Amino acid sequence: MATKSVIRQVSQHVGETVTIGAWINNKRSSGKIQFLQLRDGSGYIQGVVVKSEVAEQVWEDAKSLTQESSLYVTGVIREEPRSQSGFEMTVTGIEIIHLTENYPITPKEHGVDYLMDHRHLWLRTQKQRAIMVIRAEIIRAVQEYFDTNGFTLVDPPILTPTSAEGTTNLFHTKYFDEDAYLTQSGQLYLEAAAMALGKVYSFGPTFRAEKSKTRRHLIEFWMIEPEMAFTDHEESLQVQEQFISHVVQSVVKNCRQELETIGRDISKLEAIQAPFPRITYDEAIDFLHTQDFDIPWGEDFGAPHETAIAEKYDKPVFITHYPAGIKSFYMKPDPNRPEVVLCADMIAPEGYGEIIGGSQRIDDPQLLEERFKEHNLSLETYQWYMDLRKYGTVPHSGFGLGLERTVAWICGLDHVRETIPFPRTLYRLYP
Questions:
Q1: Is the pTM of this model over 0.90?
Q2: Residue 347: exposed, middle, or buried by beta-carbon count in 10 A (0-12, 13-18, 19+)?
């Protein structure tokens, strides 16, 4: 009797007869041999049907199979060095579950809008599956790093009464008779949790109602946000570079086949090892002026500026000490130069832009109150946040990693829309 297996585990069954539930990814015929390209979600394998070695019904069933038809296929696993998986199946039996007709996504070229309209089916293609496997490995490695380095996972609320950063790009809803918003960051709540647990992190969805159509932006995306008590700016930078190195090397180690499937240059990822280079905002401005960018001191960087800076390096680069006027109210000023803050953006190489933004937080209650007034924020609304400075304030720092931008960079993708199973963009809420 055949053993039930999945493609990922066929190496354990060489010489044995197994049954696999699968879909037909593709099919070709060479006279009296049919080659079935099978997928089951865990991997791919070729099934070989030889007419002289199977019952007539098995042969006819194999002939009738169409792209994305589903079946149980039974056969003997054997090693095949020429195949991508290293194994092949000699088919002995087929049980058809469903024959598909007119499958919408064929091997021919399709436009992006068409593929996005059929995202629920596009996910089945080899490249899109590989991206989702890499995304899952990134998430696993993220949690592994924090869980093994003394951090506690904390889940901040998704419905909030205010903005985390005082911006207006929020989705508004009603919380019974009160106004509420979909969160754009869990940071302020994580700061409270850090005062209870020391080192914490969150991993969850965030929402920004920015009418942006760039290749780096999504409306709904996932953020990893650590906060660390008794941690200064320098210590936070060290955590960030060790964290990113761990994640990238975990993908290189565990997803090499998927990286090869999508055509990623793995050598570029292998070079991502801490420490990372650092430049100040002032140095970045000076460099951009040498590259004929007309950008005054005090203005934030856009995608072309970040790309120009990143091209100097083969690793992520920190840009530190931005002007206070272009950063969030909670960032701690540099004691030696109060017009800049103790913050850093991590810019990914190869033109992928900012993947991490972080800072040391203001821990002086009087200074934080001044910042509230400067930014026209309600002290009453943020009283709970002020309490963190009123009752046992400590130096603390944190940062946020955008998951989808990180997936795009590690996979070498042109657009973030392929980094999440069902992207939400400015003009897309379907499917």
A1: yes
A2: buried
